[in-house]
Amino acid sequence: MLLLVGLTQGMTRSSTAQRLVLVVAVLASFVAFLDGTVINVALPAITRELGGGIVTQQWVVDAYLITLGGIILLAGSLSDAFGRRRVLLWGLVGFAAASVLCALAPSAPFLIAARALQGVAGALLVPSSLALIFSTFSGAGQARAIGTWTAWTSTAFIAGPLIGGLLVDLSSWRLVFAINIVPIAATLVLLARLPGDRAVDAATRVDIIGAILGVLGLALPVFALIEQTNFGWGSPVILVPLVVGVLSFAAFIWHENSTKVPMMPLSLFRVRNFWVGNVATTLIYAALSLGTFILAVFLQQVGGYSATLAGLALLPVSILSMALSTLIGRLAGQFGPRLFMSVGPILAGIGFFMMLRIDSSVAYYSQVLPGVIIFGLGLTTTVAPLTSAILGAIEPARAGIASAVNNALSRVAGLVAIAAASIIVGPVLDLDGFHRAAIVTGILLVGGGIISGIGIQNPLSVPPDKLKA
């Protein structure tokens, strides 16, 4: 209920129908984003009960990201072809069912398989949610709506560890998944009040071959990244999936370039803000996934924090996002996104560089909190302008697939970053390993800011005297 009240505040200039669309879009995305991060602080508890060590921890995270990243492109094209409301319904029902399976998982392999199913359903949620906003709002109202969507979904991305920590400490890690039923039920009730989708065109086709090649091209290389610590790069168990995965991805690109109905039209990447923004997205979200994952585990396993305290460590980021994202979205609509997309990631990177001051005491207020605050300011400055710049460069009729491409890249970047975590930190996470991860995170964030500053163009609709901003 707090989420519903918060979303309706500040939207008084929007119609009732628009507010309903915004609430549905945020709730649907909130569920998918939350479940991608709420799991982080539950990982130690999961492996204590189900076993498997760091490999199980990685696969519980990556199984979700593999299927979400692999299916999300197909989901975007389904959204454009079959309608936003219909695809959202499929995703919500599937996500609820998979969440129940996760909560009841009797073993690590069962949980990993259920997480993979959860990722499939989650892939249906985000592209349709954003496409729903872009097809409903326009002009200044669209900028405000994207800012509001960003505030709440970014909060889900960062507040996940807090929610997960409370559930783990007060009850069980299984509630991390069971709790999904509440927001899903609320979203289904509101979704039923939206107008129905148009009738499906009998000539509509789905790029099944592209979907299969995309999943193989993603899943197999990530499997190799994770399991190379157990088998070594020279093992056939690693080399065969790696080679097949790379060839599958190459075949995916060829297929998308030659088929009449591609899942991912390569023509999208001829639009400057779209391709530059997606390069920046790849770097920024790889950093975000790696940094928050390592920090949450480090605070517990090395710092001795409880799961709840580890979640609370990132609470300032959520507060900053909720307080400032709508304002940042409006300012980006007024002055253009380039300045915000340049300064924001660099500021976030400085926040992680500040965490190099953390020593064996892992003192929160003097060592962790300053970097978290700077990181939060940078992240808040980045996300809404990034989303608006990328999707605003593509016509609304293709908003579903454009959103899917951007979200796929962000998820794939996070997936590869998590898969590579053991390479960066070593077989056991210690203080030196955390410092290495913080340096890599900071470099990726700064790189995203530099690329945005060089490549992003402010829309021509922005007044000429403000383009210099």
Write the layout of secondary structure elements.
Blueprint lengths: L1 H7 L7 H22 L5 H8 L2 H30 L1 H20 L4 H16 L2 H11 L2 H32 L4 H4 L2 H11 L16 H24 L4 H23 L13 H30 L5 H6 L2 H21 L2 H17 L9 H29 L6 H21 L1 H5 L5 H25 L14
Helix pairs in contact: 1-2, 2-7, 2-8, 2-10, 3-4, 4-5, 4-6, 4-7, 4-11, 4-18, 5-6, 5-7, 5-10, 7-18, 8-15, 8-17, 11-12, 11-18, 13-17, 13-18, 13-20, 15-17, 16-17, 16-20
Features:
single chain, 469 residues, mainly alpha, Growth Hormone, Chain: A, 2 domains, globular, disordered N terminus, disordered C terminus
Describe the overall structure.
With 469 residues, this protein is mainly alpha-helical. The protein has two domains: 9-195 and 261-466, Growth Hormone, Chain: A; 208-260, no CATH class. It has helices at 2-8, 16-37, 43-50, 53-82, 84-103, 108-123, 126-136, 139-170, 175-178, 181-191, 208-231, 236-258, 272-301, 307-312, 315-335, 338-354, 364-392, 399-419, 421-425, 431-455. Mean pLDDT is 83; it is low at 1-6, 8-13 and 462-469.
